[in-house]
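User: What would this chain look like folded?
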Amino acid sequence: MADQPTQNKPMYYPWHHFVLLPAALILAGYGVRRYLDVAGNDDETSRLWFTVMALAIVGLGTLVMMRQHYALQLQDRLIRLEVRQRYFEITGQSLRPLEAQLQLSQILALRFAGDDELPGLVQAAIREKLSSKDIQARIQHFQFDHLRV
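Assistant: Here's the prediction, encoded as structure tokens.
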């Protein structure tokens, strides 16, 4: 049987997409509607619905921000893999033994280095404990990353 071409199916995290997000949307909408019904009253009911509405909106905002956080973590992971691959292609050696001595911020800064500068900057970052700003200051030929979110 011939191999079927893989299809790009959307990935869903069921708890996020089908439980938490819809519940937060419903609660925020209902909380806003109920609060608007009692707004201006200075009683316990209006304060209760204001609190429900505020908590629901904050919760909804948190869920939306989590999506951005997931994307940024994934990009950091991909950059780490990209720097590993480039280092191996340039030197023929694995970067993994040296990674334990590098911080993520240093690896993220190293991605901007040109191929001729990368091995030397990796060694300098480890030896001199360079900050990400110091690493970027030493880069002569930047490879800009215009695809970062």
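The chain has one domain: 14-138. If you want, I can go into more detail on any region.
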